[in-house]
Predict the structure.
Amino acid sequence: MKVVVLWSGGKESYLAYQKVIAQGHEVVYLLSYVYKKPFIFHSFPVMEVQSKALGIPQLKIKVKKDKDVLANLMRLKKEGIEGIVTGDIVGTDCAHHHQDYYDPMCKQVGLSLIMPIENQSKDSYDVLKEEISAGIKPIVNCINLDYFGEEWLGRVLDGASIKDLKTLADRHGIDVCGEDEVGFHTMVIDAPLFKNTIEIGRSKKKVIKDKSWKRSWLLMDIKEAFLRPKQ
Protein backbone atom coordinates (compact mmCIF):
# COMPACT_ATOMS: atom_id res chain seq x y z
CA MET A 1 0.00 0.00 0.00
CA LYS A 2 1.27 3.51 -0.83
CA VAL A 3 1.14 5.61 2.33
CA VAL A 4 2.24 8.91 3.85
CA VAL A 5 3.49 9.15 7.42
CA LEU A 6 2.37 12.11 9.53
CA TRP A 7 5.80 13.41 10.46
CA SER A 8 6.87 15.43 13.48
CA GLY A 9 10.41 14.08 13.53
CA GLY A 10 9.86 12.71 17.03
CA LYS A 11 10.43 9.18 18.27
CA GLU A 12 6.88 7.87 17.70
CA SER A 13 6.61 9.19 14.16
CA TYR A 14 9.88 7.43 13.33
CA LEU A 15 8.77 4.21 15.05
CA ALA A 16 5.54 4.27 13.03
CA TYR A 17 7.59 4.76 9.85
CA GLN A 18 9.83 1.80 10.67
CA LYS A 19 6.86 -0.41 11.47
CA VAL A 20 4.95 0.28 8.24
CA ILE A 21 8.13 -0.31 6.22
CA ALA A 22 8.49 -3.69 7.97
CA GLN A 23 4.85 -4.42 7.12
CA GLY A 24 5.64 -3.95 3.43
CA HIS A 25 4.04 -0.56 2.81
CA GLU A 26 5.64 2.01 0.52
CA VAL A 27 6.13 5.40 2.18
CA VAL A 28 5.77 8.09 -0.47
CA TYR A 29 5.93 11.22 1.72
CA LEU A 30 6.67 12.39 5.23
CA LEU A 31 3.71 14.72 5.81
CA SER A 32 4.16 17.69 8.17
CA TYR A 33 1.41 20.20 8.85
CA VAL A 34 2.45 23.79 9.56
CA TYR A 35 -0.26 25.26 11.75
CA LYS A 36 1.38 27.70 14.15
CA LYS A 37 4.44 29.93 14.51
CA PRO A 38 6.72 29.39 16.21
CA PHE A 39 6.29 25.62 15.82
CA ILE A 40 7.76 24.96 19.25
CA PHE A 41 7.30 21.23 19.70
CA HIS A 42 9.43 20.01 16.81
CA SER A 43 12.13 21.43 14.56
CA PHE A 44 11.65 21.89 10.82
CA PRO A 45 15.41 22.24 10.15
CA VAL A 46 15.87 18.80 11.72
CA MET A 47 12.88 17.37 9.83
CA GLU A 48 14.43 18.50 6.56
CA VAL A 49 17.64 16.54 7.17
CA GLN A 50 15.68 13.57 8.53
CA SER A 51 13.93 13.47 5.16
CA LYS A 52 17.31 13.34 3.43
CA ALA A 53 18.61 10.70 5.85
CA LEU A 54 15.62 8.48 5.02
CA GLY A 55 15.55 9.31 1.32
CA ILE A 56 11.84 10.16 1.54
CA PRO A 57 10.56 13.63 0.50
CA GLN A 58 8.93 15.77 3.16
CA LEU A 59 5.62 17.36 2.26
CA LYS A 60 4.98 20.55 4.28
CA ILE A 61 1.38 21.76 4.18
CA LYS A 62 0.13 24.99 5.76
CA VAL A 63 -3.23 24.54 7.42
CA LYS A 64 -5.57 26.91 9.23
CA LYS A 65 -8.85 25.01 9.21
CA ASP A 66 -10.07 21.41 8.97
CA LYS A 67 -11.03 22.01 5.35
CA ASP A 68 -7.33 22.54 4.54
CA VAL A 69 -6.51 19.08 5.93
CA LEU A 70 -9.38 17.51 3.99
CA ALA A 71 -8.31 19.22 0.76
CA ASN A 72 -4.77 17.88 1.21
CA LEU A 73 -6.06 14.34 1.77
CA MET A 74 -8.06 14.63 -1.43
CA ARG A 75 -4.94 15.69 -3.34
CA LEU A 76 -3.00 12.76 -1.92
CA LYS A 77 -5.74 10.35 -2.93
CA LYS A 78 -5.55 11.66 -6.51
CA GLU A 79 -1.79 10.98 -6.46
CA GLY A 80 -2.44 7.33 -5.68
CA ILE A 81 -1.90 7.44 -1.92
CA GLU A 82 -3.89 4.73 -0.17
CA GLY A 83 -3.25 5.28 3.54
CA ILE A 84 -2.30 7.79 6.23
CA VAL A 85 0.03 6.63 9.04
CA THR A 86 0.11 8.25 12.48
CA GLY A 87 2.66 7.83 15.25
CA ASP A 88 0.07 7.65 18.01
CA ILE A 89 0.33 4.94 20.63
CA VAL A 90 -2.93 3.01 20.36
CA GLY A 91 -5.05 3.32 23.48
CA THR A 92 -3.77 6.72 24.62
CA ASP A 93 -5.94 9.83 24.76
CA CYS A 94 -3.90 11.39 21.96
CA ALA A 95 -4.56 8.37 19.73
CA HIS A 96 -8.29 8.52 20.44
CA HIS A 97 -8.33 12.22 19.58
CA HIS A 98 -6.47 11.77 16.30
CA GLN A 99 -8.54 8.75 15.33
CA ASP A 100 -11.77 10.68 15.93
CA TYR A 101 -10.33 13.55 13.88
CA TYR A 102 -8.94 11.64 10.90
CA ASP A 103 -11.35 8.70 10.61
CA PRO A 104 -14.28 10.66 9.13
CA MET A 105 -12.05 12.49 6.64
CA CYS A 106 -10.23 9.32 5.59
CA LYS A 107 -13.53 7.53 5.04
CA GLN A 108 -14.86 10.47 3.04
CA VAL A 109 -11.77 10.49 0.80
CA GLY A 110 -11.27 6.72 0.64
CA LEU A 111 -7.99 6.42 2.57
CA SER A 112 -7.01 3.91 5.24
CA LEU A 113 -6.00 5.25 8.66
CA ILE A 114 -3.05 3.21 9.96
CA MET A 115 -1.87 3.34 13.58
CA PRO A 116 0.94 0.77 13.74
CA ILE A 117 2.17 1.40 17.31
CA GLU A 118 0.13 -1.09 19.26
CA ASN A 119 0.61 -1.21 23.00
CA GLN A 120 -0.54 -4.56 24.28
CA SER A 121 0.58 -3.88 27.86
CA LYS A 122 -1.19 -0.48 27.97
CA ASP A 123 2.01 0.87 29.53
CA SER A 124 3.66 3.46 27.28
CA TYR A 125 6.99 2.86 29.02
CA ASP A 126 7.12 -0.43 27.10
CA VAL A 127 6.90 1.56 23.86
CA LEU A 128 9.73 3.83 25.03
CA LYS A 129 11.88 0.78 25.84
CA GLU A 130 11.05 -0.68 22.42
CA GLU A 131 12.20 2.52 20.72
CA ILE A 132 15.54 2.56 22.52
CA SER A 133 16.18 -1.17 22.05
CA ALA A 134 15.39 -0.75 18.33
CA GLY A 135 18.30 1.66 18.00
CA ILE A 136 16.34 4.92 17.82
CA LYS A 137 18.28 7.90 19.22
CA PRO A 138 16.01 10.80 20.22
CA ILE A 139 17.01 14.02 21.92
CA VAL A 140 14.70 16.02 24.19
CA ASN A 141 14.16 19.28 22.32
CA CYS A 142 11.26 20.83 24.24
CA ILE A 143 10.30 20.60 27.92
CA ASN A 144 7.52 21.83 30.14
CA LEU A 145 9.24 23.80 32.90
CA ASP A 146 6.54 22.77 35.37
CA TYR A 147 7.98 19.25 35.33
CA PHE A 148 11.50 19.30 33.89
CA GLY A 149 14.71 21.04 34.82
CA GLU A 150 16.86 22.70 32.15
CA GLU A 151 19.35 19.82 32.29
CA TRP A 152 16.87 17.74 30.29
CA LEU A 153 17.01 20.01 27.25
CA GLY A 154 19.16 18.36 24.58
CA ARG A 155 19.51 15.16 26.58
CA VAL A 156 19.73 11.94 24.56
CA LEU A 157 17.21 9.28 25.52
CA ASP A 158 19.00 5.97 26.05
CA GLY A 159 18.77 2.98 28.35
CA ALA A 160 19.94 4.99 31.37
CA SER A 161 18.10 8.28 30.83
CA ILE A 162 14.71 6.67 30.21
CA LYS A 163 14.87 5.22 33.73
CA ASP A 164 15.30 8.76 35.07
CA LEU A 165 12.47 9.87 32.80
CA LYS A 166 10.21 7.11 34.15
CA THR A 167 10.89 8.23 37.74
CA LEU A 168 10.13 11.85 36.87
CA ALA A 169 6.97 10.97 34.92
CA ASP A 170 5.63 8.83 37.75
CA ARG A 171 6.32 11.58 40.28
CA HIS A 172 4.41 14.19 38.28
CA GLY A 173 1.70 11.92 36.89
CA ILE A 174 2.56 12.59 33.24
CA ASP A 175 2.98 10.17 30.34
CA VAL A 176 6.53 8.82 30.05
CA CYS A 177 6.36 8.95 26.23
CA GLY A 178 4.89 12.45 26.17
CA GLU A 179 1.65 11.20 24.64
CA ASP A 180 -0.41 13.48 26.88
CA GLU A 181 1.37 16.44 25.21
CA VAL A 182 2.08 18.15 28.52
CA GLY A 183 5.62 17.05 29.37
CA PHE A 184 8.18 17.01 26.60
CA HIS A 185 8.90 16.45 22.91
CA THR A 186 11.75 14.83 21.01
CA MET A 187 13.58 14.83 17.69
CA VAL A 188 15.29 11.71 16.31
CA ILE A 189 18.95 12.26 15.36
CA ASP A 190 19.79 8.67 14.45
CA ALA A 191 17.90 5.46 13.74
CA PRO A 192 18.36 2.13 11.94
CA LEU A 193 16.82 3.34 8.66
CA PHE A 194 18.74 6.63 8.58
CA LYS A 195 21.48 6.56 5.93
CA ASN A 196 23.37 9.20 7.95
CA THR A 197 23.31 10.48 11.49
CA ILE A 198 22.23 14.03 12.30
CA GLU A 199 24.34 16.65 14.03
CA ILE A 200 22.69 19.68 15.58
CA GLY A 201 24.31 22.97 14.58
CA ARG A 202 23.35 26.44 15.78
CA SER A 203 20.61 26.53 18.39
CA LYS A 204 19.57 28.63 21.32
CA LYS A 205 17.34 28.20 24.32
CA LYS A 206 14.01 29.93 24.13
CA VAL A 207 11.13 30.14 26.61
CA ILE A 208 7.66 30.19 25.05
CA LYS A 209 4.58 31.06 27.09
CA ASP A 210 1.69 28.94 25.85
CA LYS A 211 -1.29 31.04 26.89
CA SER A 212 -3.93 28.65 25.57
CA TRP A 213 -2.62 25.78 27.71
CA LYS A 214 -1.11 27.99 30.46
CA ARG A 215 2.30 26.37 30.18
CA SER A 216 5.87 27.55 29.86
CA TRP A 217 7.96 25.59 27.36
CA LEU A 218 11.72 25.68 27.11
CA LEU A 219 12.86 24.64 23.65
CA MET A 220 15.95 24.21 21.56
CA ASP A 221 15.39 26.74 18.81
CA ILE A 222 17.43 24.82 16.25
CA LYS A 223 18.66 26.92 13.34
CA GLU A 224 20.90 24.35 11.65
CA ALA A 225 21.22 20.58 11.40
CA PHE A 226 23.64 18.55 9.31
CA LEU A 227 24.06 15.02 8.02
CA ARG A 228 27.19 13.19 9.10
CA PRO A 229 28.47 9.72 8.14
CA LYS A 230 27.54 7.00 10.61
CA GLN A 231 30.42 5.74 12.73
Notes: The domain at 2-228 is CATH 3.40.50.620 (Rossmann fold). The helical segments are 11-22, 44-54, 66-78, 93-109, 124-133, 161-172.
